[in-house]
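Contributing: when you submit paired examples, paste them exactly as shown. First protein:
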Amino acid sequence: MPCPPTAPTCGSLDASTGALVQVLNGFDEPDSVSSDGTYAWVANYGDNTVTAIDTATGVGKVLSGSRFGFDGPTAISSDGTVTRFPA
């Protein structure tokens, strides 16, 4: 799911064919992407949020607010149990 740094959209590709599967909108300077097989996690540097996208449905949920402590997230990693990002 490569994303240009200032683009509000990201695309997902089929790993075996390279074909475009889906285009997702609504990102703000997406900086990094990680997947744990259940969710694709997108660190949105521009608005201090992280987007969790259900890989089965393509439905996303934006995590934001002071309780998460995001400060321009630029990296993200997930192992299926814990999702990590620098705060």
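Second protein:
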Amino acid sequence: MIDSAELEAIRQRCDAATSGPWESFVEGRDHLGGNDFIRTGGLDDQSPDIELLGASIADQDFIAHAREDIPRLLDEIERLKKVNGFVTRARLQPGRNSNGEEKGL
């Protein structure tokens, strides 16, 4: 189980990274000539490209997508925790059964 402090640390690492979107460019697949790289910050020339040594194409694509995937996953975890808390509170209310339904119905 991941506690709130660990989730917050993950969110802080995401927030500290170069802003997205990040896009993986593979020579021969996405462009002709030059190295494989990850473009950060979209078309903003102020954002640096990332070049990886020894990474597979799958690794590079994963890293590029992680910039947007991880914040979305953190948001979904937060949403599900809220839903779970609501359901748990509803189930524990007096006059309700273990499914959160009113007793006697």
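If you have annotations for the second protein, write them as plain sentences, like these:
The first helix runs from residue 4 to 16.
The beta strands are 23-25, 37-39, 49-50.
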